[in-house]
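Run log, item B.
One chain of 294 residues. Sequence copied directly from the ordering sheet:
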Amino acid sequence: MKKLFLNNFAFYLPAVLMSISSCKKDGASTPLTLKNDINVATSSALGRYLTNKNGLTLYMFANDADGASTCTGDCEVLWPAFTTDIANPSLDSTLRAIDFATITNAAGKMQVTYRGWPLHTYSPPGTNGYGSSSNVPEALGSTGGDGFAGIWFVAKPDYTIMLANTQLKGLDGNLYQKDYSFGAGLTTYFTDGAGKTIYTFAADSFNMNKFTKPDLSNNSLFPIYEQESIVVPSILNKSLFSAITFAGKKQLTYKGWPLYYFGQDLLRGSNKGISVPARGVWPVAVKDIAEAVK
């Protein structure tokens, strides 16, 4: 069984909880009972996202980039694991069974994953039917948990950029903080939809790939992120993404920075490229990076 890590995001300030605890409706129209165990809803604000059979929105957690469910204890009260005892849950016709699996989380529950991301519902603080304060599932068709703390997002079926919030650990074995000084700490950065880390190259300039050779002979070292579709978490500005053509391949860019993988990141959630050949040469792609120089 994959090792499950304790979540350091288990405690939330009450003020933060109360400020976003009211569910928001965003145009999605969801019936009380849906056809499949896992469905796809659509809203004008968020596009397509996953729901359970009762219409509750499903969410992904940036801390789970390596595929382990890190939301435990108080965190799971707010974000219950989406579980199943059905061997082959029925799916919306636009979804693929190969993208779904289950893991055993820290509470011993069979939690459903999508493209490796453990799935959750959202139960903000509220009042139950007996007049007592408790955590209750958000209203059907609501997406009030999207964007919570900048690391919880509706589970879209087709993310091409997702966010991880994990420890940086280079190929050299050292732990790095977000400024690439040595030490432990979480960093929020881009991955693809399956949790594979995305990098920028410090020597690149605006929409110019200066690393990859025209014959692609070094592409296995830091492979081009071949993508031109732009489906991103709601806290990212979609207009800042684009695509360039290099050696016949479409390479996704952000703020003019061409985006890459690292060939030795064999496991989802790995970010070993940050120390190759030295720290700062291949930083992980982050929301607040300065625009590439033109």
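Observations after the first pass:
- The chain has a mean pLDDT of 88.
- The first strand starts at residue 38 and ends at 43.
Flagged for discussion on Thursday.
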